[in-house]
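Need residues for this backbone.
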């Protein structure tokens, strides 16, 4: 690592990045595998963007050790490079591959230095500077890619939850939420939010929560259901739980869970018939019990 910035070396590197930018970008992009999602032209454009930012940074006064973290153009170029790869999710694209791409740029630049000067001492100092600069760049791209993929995974998980908890309008003022799979805290929150918004938008009086597709009901699941029922009632609607199979009824009884204050039915058809009775009696919550 350089103890102090070498202005002569920086000048040589900045000139090299300016004069040979197109060739460097072509050589660098040529070292990367094309994966169908990213063409060679896209890779070269990405390379040119970063090389221009590095050229301007080296021509400036910011110490090399701080360029990656503090130069806006360099940091933006590296961040964009990593985020585009994270969004693409290509088969060969991963944090390590993204960092290795920066190391490939290091090899490209070191080869170009040899063509620009015969001074062995200058080559050595230039190699030290390039190593320091691009090692920091590789670390940043790794971190940004990893953070980007984690964010995308969270977003996709949220979208899956939304799709797996649809609110269906069965009748005027009657909504249904068919649940399939395990009901955990995160999913319960999505169910509750979607259902309450739909109740408000549709002026619903009855909400049916169908648990036919829920494999098991334990204490946690029952508590989630009770929370949802309470929230629905606060919105002025009645809640009917359908899909209570014999095995689930026995489990609930054995666990000592009290659902006596909630309307329950064995099938969605029975729940819809109950909803019709509720609406036929003026839609008063609690008109039908048991």
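Answer:
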């Amino acid at each position: 690592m350089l103890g102090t910035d070498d202005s002569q070396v920086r000048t040589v590197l900045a000139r090299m990045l300016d004069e040979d930018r197109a060739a460097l970008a072509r050589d660098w992009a040529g070292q990367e595998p094309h994966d169908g999602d990213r063409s060679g032209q896209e890779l070269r454009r990405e390379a040119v963007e970063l090389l221009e930012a590095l050229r301007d940074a080296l021509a400036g006064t910011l110490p090399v050790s701080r360029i990656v973290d503090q130069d806006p153009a360099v940091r933006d170029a590296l961040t964009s490079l990593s985020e585009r790869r994270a969004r693409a999710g290509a088969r060969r694209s991963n944090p390590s591959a993204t960092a290795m791409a920066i190391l490939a740029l290091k090899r490209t630049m070191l080869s170009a230095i040899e063509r620009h000067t015969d001074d062995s001492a200058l080559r050595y100092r230039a190699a030290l500077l390039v190593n320091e600069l691009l090692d920091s760049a590789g670390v940043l791209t790794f971190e940004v890619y990893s953070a980007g993929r984690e964010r995308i995974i969270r977003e996709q998980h949220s979208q899956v939850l939304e799709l797996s908890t649809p609110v269906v309008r069965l009748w005027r003022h009657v909504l249904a939420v068919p649940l399939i799979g395990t009901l955990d805290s995160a999913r319960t929150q999505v169910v509750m939010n979607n259902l309450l918004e739909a109740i408000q938008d549709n002026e619903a009086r009855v909400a049916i929560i169908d648990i036919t597709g829920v494999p098991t009901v334990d204490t946690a699941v029952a508590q989630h259901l009770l929370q949802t029922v309470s929230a629905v009632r606060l919105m002025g609607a009645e809640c009917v739980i359908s899909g209570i199979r014999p095995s689930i009824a026995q489990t609930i009884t054995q666990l000592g869970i009290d659902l006596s204050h909630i309307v329950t039915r064995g099938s969605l058809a029975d729940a819809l018939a109950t909803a019709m009775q509720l609406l036929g009696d003026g839609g008063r919550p609690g008109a039908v019990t048991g």
